[in-house]
Structure formats: C-alpha cells, structure tokens
Specification:
Blueprint lengths: L3 H13 L12 H8 L39 H23 L7 H13 L2 H5 L1 H35 L9 H9 L1 H34 L14 H26 L1 H31 L5 E5 L2 E2 L11 E4 L2 E4 L1 H6 L11 H5 L2 E5 L55 H8 L19 H30 L2 H4 L12 H5 L4 H33 L18 H17 L2 H29 L13 H18 L1 H21 L8 H18 L12 E5 L11 H10 L5 E8 L2 H21 L5 E7 L2 H11 L9 E5 L13 H13 L3 E6 L15 E6 L1 E2 L3 H9 L9 E8 L5 H14 L5 E6 L2 H7 L7 H17 L14 H8 L10 E2 L3 H10 L16 H23 L4 E5 L10 H11 L6 E5 L11
Parallel strand pairs: 6-7, 6-9, 7-8, 9-10, 11-13, 11-16, 13-14, 16-17
Antiparallel strand pairs: 1-2, 1-5, 3-4, 10-17, 12-15
Helix pairs in contact: 1-3, 2-3, 4-10, 4-14, 6-13, 6-14, 6-19, 6-20, 7-8, 7-19, 8-9, 8-17, 8-18, 8-19, 8-21, 9-17, 9-18, 10-17, 13-19, 13-20, 17-18, 19-20, 19-21, 19-22, 20-21, 25-26, 29-33, 30-32, 33-34
Family: Belongs to the SLC12A transporter family. K/Cl co-transporter subfamily.
Membrane topology: Multi-pass membrane protein
Subcellular location: Cell membrane
Length: about 1050
C-alpha cells in the first residue's frame, strides 16, 4: 500500500495538471502518440514542456505528480504495470481537453440522417405505380424482400462498426479492413458509383417533379408530332438535369456547410409529406376527396385535353358534342366518322380515390402487369372489344403503359428507396458514443422506414382505384401527382415536399460520393486514383467532385428514372453483399480481434443477407448484375497486380490461413500418387560476401520449370550463429525475396544460419516445408570453383549434399554453367532439348523437358531422347519400344539409339550398376515387365529375348526396391553376368576396389569417350539433360567423382545433371 501511494498521487496530480512528477525510467512512448494526436497551438508555455516526451528509454523527467520514483526497485513488475498509465495519460489528456467535443447522439447523428437518406424520390413518384402494377401482395413482397435485405445488412454493419473506430470512408473502410484492399477497393469503387448514380436519380426525380407537376409549361423541347411527348420529355430531362447538376456541384464546391445546414430543412419536408399522406388516408375514411376519373368502356382516358367526361353535353334546348367527341371524331356533327371503340362503348366517370372503407383493396390485391403501349384498363368494367385496333394510335387520349412491367423490373426500380443505411456509420467520428448509436440508430431507422413503406403499400391499395395506381404520371388526374391527390390538406404539400427532399438527397449524394472517392485515393490501393486524393486547402475533394459530376452526367443523359434505378441497385446490392460477407467471415474465423460491442448478430444472419443480396442482384437484372460483377472483378485484379501493398489484418488473409491449415492436414494423409507427382523444388542458393545471390539465373530456371505450379522453396545458408548474424540473415532474406519478385518466382524463402554450410544445407534438405507440402527435388548450381581450395562451397559439401538427397529419397538437379541459362524475357525460336537416358530414374528425365516446354522460353524447342546400346543389342527394337513407351506417356519426342562399345558403358556406370546384385535386380524387373507391360509401361522391354535368358534371370536374387536400372537389353545383362566372372575383363569389376591409378585411368577413358559421343550429337542443343551417377560408397573417391563429372560435361553450354529418386514419377494412365 505504501508503494502504491506515490503512483496514485502521481496520477491524481497528473489529473490536476501539476508538473511535479519525475520518472527516471521514461522512454519514447508519448512521442509516438503525439504524432498521432498533436497538441493544439496556443497552449501556455508551462504545458508545452519539451521534457514530457521521454517515457521508456533513457532517463528523462516526465512532470506528472509530486512524488519522484527514482528506481523501479525490487518491485519492477508493479511499476511496469503503471508505466503504461504514465505514458498514455500525458499523451491522451490534451486530446480530450482541447479536441472538439462530439455532442451528436443517436437521434441527430444516426437516426435522422438514415431517415433522410432512405425516404426519397421512389416513395413519392413510383410507389403508387408499383402497387398498381404488382398488386398489393406483390408490392408487399417486393418491399419486404428489400427491407429484409437492408435489415440483415444493418445487423452485420453494426457488428463491424462496433468492432473499432470507423473513420472517413464508411462502408469502404469497413469492407477493406475486413476483406482486404482488393475487395475493399473493388467494392468501395462500386459503392462510389452507386452513390454517384443515386445523385443522378435524385436529380432526374427533381426535374420530373418540376416539369410534370409544378410547371409543365417550362419545357424547352416540344413534341413535333403526335405521340412524341415521351421523347420530348427525355430531352427536357437531359437539358434541365445538366443545368441542375452544374448548379448543385457549384453549391458543393463553394461550401459543404450550406448543404449540412439545409439537411434538417430537407428532412422536415420529407416528414411533413409523409404525415400529409397519413392524414389524407385518415380523411378518406370519413370524407373521400372528389377525384373523378374518366373511362371509355374499361379504358382510362387522359384528362389533359378535355374537361367534361361525356360524349355530348346540354347546350340550350339541345345537346352539343364535347371536347372529348372532337378527340375521337373527325368533326362535331352527328354524322361524323368516329373511332369504332368510341362509338360502341360508353363514357363513364369513376371515383379515383374511393377511400379506405370502400373495399377497393380486394380489387388491387393481384398484379396487373402490362406490355409497353398497353391500355390502362379497369377490371370488371363493361367493354365492347373492337378487332384490328391499333393501340394508342395517333391523337386518341388514352392512358398507356410507358414500359413493359414485370416483377423483377419493379424490384430493381424500388430497391434504391431502401438504400442509405450507411449514413450513420459514415458519421462515427461525430458521435458521442458510436458503439451505441450506430446499431440503435440504424436499425431503428430501418424499422421505421420499413413500417412506412409497408403501411403505404397497404394504404395505397386500400384507398386508390387501380387505374389511378397504374397511371404513372397522373394523366387521368389532369397531370397531378397521385400521392398528392391523396394527401391532406393540399396536394402541394407533397409536391413541394418531394421536390425539396429530392433536391436535398441529390446534394447529399454529390457531397458524400467525392469524399468516398477521396478516402479510396488516399489509401493508395489504386495508384491511378491518387490524383483524386488531393483537393482544396481545407481538404475539400475538388478533383473527386469533378469526376463525380462527369459520371453523374452520364446517368442524367440516360434521362429515365426507371432506367437509372436498376443500375445503382446493382452497386448498392454488391456493397451490402460484401458487408454481410465480411461479418460472416470474421465470425466464422473467430479471430481474436473480432470483439464487437453489438452482440445481436450471427453468421447465419449475415450469410442469409449475403445470399439475399446476391439473389436480388439477378432478380433485378441479370445483365446489369454481370456487368457490375465484371467491373468489380476488373478493379480487383488491377489492385492485385498494380495496387500498393497493404496489410490490414483482413479476413481474407485469415481465411487463407484456415484454408491452408485444412489443406495441409488433408494432404498429410496417405502417400502421394504417381499421377499427382510434380517436382516440388528446394532451390539451394549461394550468397556472396554482400549477401546477394551469386547465380540469379537459377531462379529464372526455377520459374521456367515450375510456371507458378506446385511448391517452390528458395533456401540458403549463412555461416555463423543466429545471435550474431540475425540482422544479416534478415537482409539476405530481403535480397532473395526481391530477386524472387524480379524473376517472378512464386514460392517461399527459407534462410538458415548454421555453424557450417554443410550442416545448414543438410538441415534444409531435412526440414524445409511443412507437413505434406515438402519438397521432393533439390535444385542447385554446379560448384564451378570446386578445384580451388579456398572455395566456400567445396566439392566435399557438394558430394555430401548429393548423398543427403539420396538418403532422403529426393531427386537432384544440378545446373552446370547456370549463368548461361536463359532469362525469362528470352525466347528460343528454334533448337533442341536433348535427353541422354542412360539409367532408368523413374521417368524424371522424360518429365523435365515436358515441363520446360510449357514455358514461353522453351516452347519452340524440340525434344530428343538418346539411349545407348552396345553393338550386339537390337537397336531397331529398342528404338521401337522407346517410341511406344513415349506414345503411352503422351510425350512427343524424337528417339535415337546411339551404339557404343560395352566397356564404355560399364565404365560410365561405375557405381553399383556393374555389381552382380544390381544386374540381377534389373534382370528380374525386365522379366516382370512381360506380364506388366499392359499395366505399367514404365520400362523399356526387349520382345526378342531368348527363353534361356529369361530362365537365367529368374534364378537371380530378388530385386531391392528404389534402385536405379539401366536401359540395356536382357541379353547384354546376362552376358555381363558371365563376363564379370572372367578375371581378364577387369573393366567390369568394382572400380573402387582397383588400385587408384588404374581406376583413375579407366574412369577418365570412359568419361572422355562418352563426352565425345554427347558432343557429337548435342553440341548445338539448347539444353542437355544427363543422368548423374551417384557418389562412390568409399569417400576417398569423392574428388575423382567430381573430376569424372567435370570431364563428362566438358564442352557443353547448358547441362542439367539429373539424379532421380528411383521412384516412378510418370504413368501411362489418366
């Protein structure tokens, strides 16, 4: 307790601002925090103490309390726990004191902005038409699906938004930090495009209200002929829309503060309009408004050209034709020629808004979809059909369907009316308690607007006649807004309110979209957008606003509200789909950082919301959905290849780790089948004194061999101890990774610090990889300087590495003259890849050229296979068998049999191949191939073997598994068996049992002879692949072994020595 008093006193004094506490163990913690939260200007000098930065390093005073703690003492752990408080408090305290105190609560900060963004133009201009076309039941389903989608998205968004601070960028920030920069950038740009097109939709709605319901006479373009009103209207929308867009963009450019100040005014207009609708519905129960609709038979007539709904009217003592008569007849006399339908059907007048108690709801329950140009007809009304009639021909004042209606189209048109749920999360920095306000305000706003929309669907269907509902532009009501005719006390409440609300929504879109683009540009994930991250001195996104206005203009040039709405529906649905995906992914991965304060979420709800968004995309418009997904996919690939490297701890990386863990556990079980075998390469690199790679072409060859498929581990060894050379090891690893990126080698880097190069390489061969993802092939460069005594990579290390790979049952590839190998940019226009197949190695020699020819460098090269026969072998049959073998392997290559004297071959295979035990094994395998040839064509046969040779082969010792075998005929092997018993033939004895001089002479003679044959056939080959004999069992012959390999490959430009593991790596079966 006594030791705790100074700490408490220090904290207490810190809170009062007394600069009297000196902490001698301070370091540099506050300086980092000060960079993120700088002190405001104009502080008193006493509070701008330069000695307050140190906090954990060298001694330095931190003035915080009246008590001095000069030493941590024996209770360092107690003081260490308090050090975080001493460090954090002085840095965070000025932030809370001088920063702008956010005072916005749930109502002002989240609920009302969401309400304003959700309720908008579709409610006033299109909802009645949707109810009339889809029916009450269909419309209810449409609204319910869309509201359910946004509610599920809001639940997922609340979980993400309460899992930390959401700065500027809103949905883009949430998605990018949860799914990574690729998904974040792609979906963020789609959300930006959706917001921009939403601005175009709101502007088009504003112009439609103005030209149709406020001032129809303001049209600039007039219809040139009858029936051209629709085209003239589109031209007027384009002209007025462009001017309105320029005006709104200028307002946003001048100052966003004016837009924010008018936001409450616009919201008040929306609320008053909705209240007027409910008041009008209540009024219809007692006193329905007088809204007459004129019908000819069962067809609705447009009231724009006449006033009296009758064929004739009383005039003095008689009757006179009305204006309606003049529209259907060519004169006003009784004998005039009139439209047949007009003659045979009566003109009646119906009540357009019969009221909520009229029972019209039953008539409006079912859908009434219509084709473009169809008559708007009243169900159940008497009508005499007329054959061969042109619909809407000429000047007849019918109300016609302007577009073909169906369920999916109406979903796409309606969905933008439920967007805007991100308004609260975008303002998280201005909220008093964002963790509480965002979920409560957003979900409450969606519940409120869902109730409004669903109730309006029922009330519109219960109050308004079906033909009036299907009259999109109110032509039967003399050009009045249908919702306005229902409202109380005046239709102008709806007209003016909807006009200002759409204006406000357009301004909000033009304000929010540039800021979203600026946030994406400043993140740096899309390099081409960096210019849009700049703006005015106060941070306003000028360039982003200009781009937004240009994109918005394309939507205005479309000029049709019904055509623009599905476009932005696609982009919003894609954004909402990925918000749900982000929440579901984070929940399923159970990452430790996933700790949202909002607890009422579940991954099944997020998955349901994601599925619903995906389904709605294709329900609205499958071709728009594919187009939006194509745009997002292109952006994703662009960010993946050209974007800046960002590491945000996103969920996709966590998902990759989980998938990798699952896959590793799967491949761990059971041995790998031959059909799945491919070289999983461990590349051994040598480093120079500056820790740079000596042979970069080795990585080029690796990428050409692998082409990004399978496992590649790039390994190297630093000599020394890890404690002394860990910094150098890190630098060397960075150099290797940089070279891997330059050479486009896809793989992993593993660098080992070991006491010796020999042990380090042995450790890599044994332990590189993880689980089932381990290498089966080692690729290394030939030690060109092996004769020099001071070579760091001596011939002893090389031979021991060969032995290690053999013991580990791994294949070995040794590239000689590796600096002459081609780079990835080079292309061989012609040439050969020659394979000298001396020893059967499981098929690796056949497989390597095939893999190389898949790469662009080697694609035009031809593959040739040379096999060696003695003079008494049947060369024609050997060639035929080898061609059959290659045919079954689906490998195209030229085959050539080279004849050599037997002594040369025996000397070349000086390891175990001339021993009796090995000969008997090969002979046994050759014998078995007669019965297994149809099942496994992995061996070269000789069909002309004598019966006594086969019998002699069966008497030999059983074969030892995983041994190499020669491509000789059986007669030759039996002859070798008998000749080896003759002491006069010393060339076929164990060479290493001879005297050193005699052995060296014999080996050198064989190497020179075989090298001459290879040079004669393959001097101009682009690459030569040779069997690499294993090292001798007696270590005293290692240096002679190196000399033999050197002479064997002398004079060849590019050589790849191949030592197979002895296990089959190719098969004839699919």
């Amino acid at each position: 307790t006594q030791r705790g008093k100074p700490l408490l006193g220090c904290l207490h004094s810190l809170g009062s601002g007394s600069p009297r506490c000196h902490l001698p163990w301070a370091g540099s913690c506050v300086s980092t925090l000060r960079e993120a939260h700088p002190l405001p200007r104009g502080l008193p000098p006493a509070q701008q103490d330069p000695h307050r930065t140190p906090c954990f390093g060298q001694p330095g005073p931190v003035h915080t309390s009246p008590t001095s703690l000069r030493s941590p003492g024996p209770h360092g752990s107690v003081l260490l726990g308090a050090r975080g408080l001493f460090c954090l408090w002085p840095a965070l305290r000025p932030v809370h004191r001088w920063a702008r105190n956010p005072r916005m609560g749930t109502l002002i900060g989240v609920y009302l902005p969401c309400l304003q963004n959700i309720l908008g133009v579709i409610l006033f201009l299109r909802l009645t038409w949707i109810v009339g076309a889809a029916g009450v039941l269909g419309s209810f389903l449409i609204v319910f699906l869309c509201c359910t989608c946004t509610m599920l998205t809001a639940i997922s968004m609340s979980a993400i938004a309460t899992n930390g601070v959401v700065p500027a960028g809103g949905s883009y920030y949430m998605i990018s930090r949860s799914l990574g920069p690729e998904f974040g950038g792609a979906v963020g740009l789609c959300f930006y495009l959706g917001t921009t097109f939403a601005g175009a939709m709101y502007i088009l709605g504003t112009i439609e209200i103005f030209l149709t319901y406020i001032s129809p006479g303001a049209a600039i373009v007039e219809a040139e002929a009858a029936g051209g009103e629709a085209a003239a209207m589109l031209h007027n929308m384009r002209v007025y829309g462009t001017g309105t867009l320029a005006l709104m963009a200028l307002v946003v450019f001048v100052g966003v503060k004016y837009v924010n100040k008018l936001a409450l005014v616009f919201l008040a207009c929306v609320v008053l309009s909705i209240l007027a609708i409910y008041a009008g519905v209540i009024k219809t129960a007692f006193s329905p408004p007088d809204v007459p609709v004129c019908l000819l038979g069962n067809r609705t007539l447009s009231r724009r050209g006449f006033d009296v709904c009758a064929k004739v009217q009383a005039a003095g003592n008689g009757s006179a034709p009305t204006a309606l008569w003049g529209l259907f007849c060519n004169s006003s006399t009784a004998s005039s020629s009139c439209d047949p339908y007009f003659v045979q059907n009566n003109v009646t007048e119906a009540q357009g808004i019969p009221g909520v108690a009229s029972g019209v709801l039953l008539d409006n329950l079912w859908s009434a979809y219509a084709d473009q140009g169809a008559f708007v007809e009243k169900r159940g009304a008497a009508s005499v059909p007329v054959p061969e009639e042109e619909r809407g021909a000429g000047r007849l004042p019918y109300v016609l369907a302007d577009i073909t209606t169906y369920f999916t189209l109406l979903v796409g048109i309606y969905f933008p009316s439920v967007t805007g749920i991100m308004a609260g999360s975008n303002r998280s920095g201005d909220l008093r308690d964002a963790q509480k306000s965002i979920p409560a305000g957003t979900i409450l706003a969606i519940a409120t607007t869902s109730f409004i929309y669903l109730s309006c669907v029922l009330l519109f269907g219960a109050c308004i006649e079906g033909v009036v509902l299907r009259d999109k532009f109110g032509e039967a009501l003399q050009g009045k807004l249908v919702v306005g005719a229902l409202a109380w006390p005046s239709p102008w409440v709806i007209v003016i309110g909807s006009f200002f609300s759409t204006c406000g929504a357009g301004l909000q879109s033009l304000t929010g979209a540039p800021r979203l683009l600026q946030a994406i540009a400043r993140d740096g994930v899309i390099p081409v957008l960096q210019v849009f991250g700049h703006g005015k001195a106060n941070g306003e996104p000028t360039w982003a606003l200009l781009l937004t206005a240009l994109i918005c203009e394309t939507g205005i040039l479309i000029a049709s509200l019904d055509s623009v709405a599905p476009i932005l529906s696609m982009f919003f649905l894609m954004c909402y789909m990925f918000v749900n995906l982000a929440c579901a992914l984070q929940t399923l991965l159970r990452t430790p950082n996933w700790r949202p304060r909002f607890k009422y979420y579940h991954w099944t709800l997020s998955f349901l919301g994601m599925s619903l968004c995906f389904a709605l995309m294709f329900i609205c418009s499958w071709y728009y959905a594919l187009f939006a997904m194509l745009i997002a996919g292109c952006i994703y690939k662009y960010i993946e290849y050209r974007g800046a490297e960002k590491e945000w701890g996103d969920g996709i990386r966590g998902l990759s780790l989980n998938a990798a863990h699952y896959a590793l556990l799967r491949v761990e079980h059971g041995p790998l089948h031959t059909k799945n075998w491919r070289p999983q390469v461990l590349v051994m690199l040598n480093l120079d004194s500056e820790r740079r790679v000596k042979h970069p072409r080795l990585l080029s060859f690796t990428s050409q061999l692998k082409a990004g498929k399978g496992l590649t581990i790039v390994g190297s060894v630093l000599e020394g101890t890890f404690l002394d050379r860990h910094a150098e090891a890190q630098q060397a690893e960075e150099n290797i990774r940089a070279l891997m990126g330059t050479e486009k080698t896809k793989g992993f880097c593993q660098l080992v610090v070991s006491s010796s190069l020999r042990d380090g390489m042995s450790h890599l061969i044994q332990s590189a990889g993880l689980g089932g993802m381990r290498h089966n092939t080692v690729l290394m460069a030939w030690p060109a300087a092996w004769r020099q005594g001071d070579s760091p990579f001596s011939w002893k290390n090389f031979v021991d590495t060969v032995r290690d790979t053999t013991a580990a049952h791994q294949a070995l590839l040794v590239a000689k003259n590796v600096d002459l190998f081609p780079q990835n940019q080079e292309r061989f226009s012609d040439g050969n890849i020659d394979v000298w197949w001396i020893v059967h190695d499981g098929g690796l020699l056949m497989l390597l050229p095939f893999l190389l020819r898949q790469h662009k460098v080697w694609r035009r090269c031809r593959m040739r296979i040379f096999t060696v026969a003695q003079v008494d072998d049947n060369s024609i049959q050997m060639k035929k068998d080898l061609q059959t073998f290659l045919y079954h392997l689906r490998i195209s290559a030229e085959v050539e049999v080279v004849e050599m004297v037997e002594n040369d071959i025996s000397a070349f295979t000086y390891e175990k191949t001339l021993m009796m035990e090995q000969r008997s094994q090969m002979l046994k395998q050759m014998q078995l191939s007669k019965t297994e040839r149809e099942r496994e064509a992995q061996l070269i046969h000789d069909r002309n073997t004598a019966s006594h040779s086969a019998a002699a082969a069966r008497t030999q010792a059983p074969p030892t598994p995983d041994k190499v075998q020669m491509t000789w005929t059986k007669e030759k092997l039996v002859a070798e068996k008998h000749r080896s018993k003759d002491a006069s033939v010393s060339g076929f004895k164990d060479l290493f049992s001879l005297k050193p001089n005699q052995s060296n002479v014999r080996r050198m003679h064989t190497a020179v002879k075989l090298n001459g044959v290879v040079l004669d056939k393959s001097r101009d080959a682009q690459l030569v692949l040779l069997n690499m004999p294993g090292p001798p069992r007696n270590r005293q012959g290692d240096e002679n072994y190196m000399e033999f390999l050197e002479v064997l490959t002398e004079g060849l430009n590019r050589v790849l020595l191949v030592r197979g593991s002895g296990r089959e790596v190719v098969t004839i079966y699919s």
